Amino acid sequence: MSMLFPLVIILFSAIIHEYMHGWMADRLGDPTARDQGRLTLNPIAHIDLWGSILMPALIFIGTGGGLIFGYAKPVPFNPYNLKDQKYGVAKVAMAGPLANLITALFFGLFLRFVPDLNLVLISFLAAIVQINLVLLIFNLLPIPPLDGAKVLLPFLPYDLQMKFLEWERFGFALVLLFVFFGFSLIIPVINFLFRLIVGV
């Protein structure tokens, strides 16, 4: 598969992920994403030059097509506007990975149960499923500022919450370290889910 297919898939999968963060925040009382024009599926509003184009291309080329990863511009929200002050941030955080799960299930089940698909379409659908599973599992890691840390935060004792917030300033470095040195740890989980959904 050429680099264009995975780049397009990861761009739109990341956009769906970010859109759902904004949609959930809006439903919970925070209009920040809507007010800033981010409550849209228009790619122009979400593209981050480094995270959406350059980094995925470099990772794809650097791994010989074995791995692709990227992100869209994070959708802004104000947690103080949320109606649910205890679990609101966790709900907003969870909306993105859930969107990726639903996308993976939809296209994976289509691939599994619709007969007589040609090889190009099979490869394209399989890539959609795999990339959305990567976004799902990766974003659920409890590494600040990933979604998994925000989902976990309300359930932790106060002192641990403060420690998590302290670590968030090193977030970008921690995420990069995991991408380059720890990513292999989640590949078996991604492959297991892929086989489970697609039935191979």
Description:
With 200 residues, this protein is mainly alpha-helical. It has one domain. The protein has nine helices and no strands. Helix 1 runs antiparallel to helix 3, helix 1 crosses helix 5 and helix 5 packs across helix 9. The longest helix has 26 residues. It is globular and about 50 Å long. The two termini are 19 Å apart. The model has no long low-confidence stretch (mean pLDDT 90).
Quick structural overview:
With 200 residues, the chain is mainly alpha-helical.
Please give the radius of gyration in angstroms. Answer: 17 Å
Count every beta strand, where a strand is a DSSP E run of 2 or more residues.
0
Into how many domains do the coordinates divide?
A: 1
Order of secondary-structure elements: HHHHHHHHH
Q: Could you report the average pLDDT, rounded to the nearest whole number?
A: 90
Q: Find the structural class using helix and strand composition.
A: mainly alpha
Main sheet overview? none
What share of the residues lie within helices? 55-70%
- Helical segment count: 9
Shape: globular
Strand content: under 5%
Cα end-to-end separation: 19 Å
- Point out poorly predicted stretches: none
